[in-house]
Design a protein that fits this description.
about 90 residues, mainly alpha, elongated
Amino acid sequence: MSAASEERLARQRRVANRLKRARGQLDAVIEAVEDGAPCRDVVTQLAAVTQALHRAGFVVVAGAMEDCVGDPEGSQDREGLTTQELERLFLTLA
């Protein structure tokens, strides 16, 4: 397996781990709402979920940008994304 493939797999694991963490945090938010937790606690947990999702998104976009720089002629891993599309995706998360 090439170093680039190993890096992509490691990136996928990081994203999956962040999303699983966000899922756990979201479950905690739902439980807090159902239990009538104070607004401050619910909002704090929602902020944690939002942050976890943003971080996962940034890892995905950053990986696509790395692939773009590594293979500017267009690699299969870029999924046909142009530089402008990558920029839009990044700004969507910002």
